[in-house]
Amino acid sequence: MQPELNSTPVEVVDNPGRERYEIFTAGDPAEFIGFLAYRVIDAETLELQHTIISEGFSRRGFARTLVTHVLDRAREREIRIVPTCSYVQDYIRRFPQYGDLVAEG
């Protein structure tokens, strides 16, 4: 089963200075939707800490869209994750095809 993404065009940006992936609407001006905070453990591993979506965008599938983008990027870059975020943990339970990204131990 594939995750159903929000149909609103979005852009997901890595903001390493703030240690988070940010999601924005793709319009002009772009609106900030939320973020997924992370911590770099080592060159091959990220701890995904918490997902925050702005109140005006909540309950519309943007968290799922953001997490899907982040996990797809992790797979492309051969990065492992440590999901301490409860949303990411639940997401991986619902979409087990991402379970191989979870770091061992």
Q: Give the N-to-C terminal Cα separation.
A: 27 Å
Q: What profile does the largest beta sheet have?
A: 5 strands, mixed
Average pLDDT number: 93
Number of domains: 1
Number of helices, counting only DSSP H or I runs of 4 residues or more: 2
The whole-angstrom Rg is 13 Å
CATH architecture: 3-Layer(aba) Sandwich
How large is the share of residues in beta strands? 25-35%
The CATH C-level class name: Alpha Beta
**Within the CATH hierarchy, at the fold level, what is the topology?**
Aminopeptidase
Can you offer a commentary on this structure?
- By secondary structure, the protein is α+β, with helices and mostly antiparallel strands.
- The chain has a single domain (10-101), classed as 3-Layer(aba) Sandwich (Aminopeptidase).
- The protein has two helices and five strands; from the N terminus they run E-E-E-E-H-E-H.
- It has a five-stranded mixed beta sheet with strand order 1-2-3-4-5.
- The longest helix is centred in the middle third of the chain and has 15 residues, at 62-76.
Spell out the blueprint of helices and strands.
Elements: E1 10-15, E2 20-25, E3 32-42, E4 45-53, H1 62-76, E5 80-83, H2 86-94
Parallel strand pairs: 4-5
Antiparallel strand pairs: 1-2, 2-3, 3-4
Defining traits:
Aminopeptidase; 105 residues; five-stranded mixed beta sheet
The gist of it:
The chain is α+β, with helices and mostly antiparallel strands and 105 residues long. The protein has 2 helices and 5 strands; from the N terminus they run ββββαβα. A 5-stranded mixed sheet has the order 1-2-3-4-5.
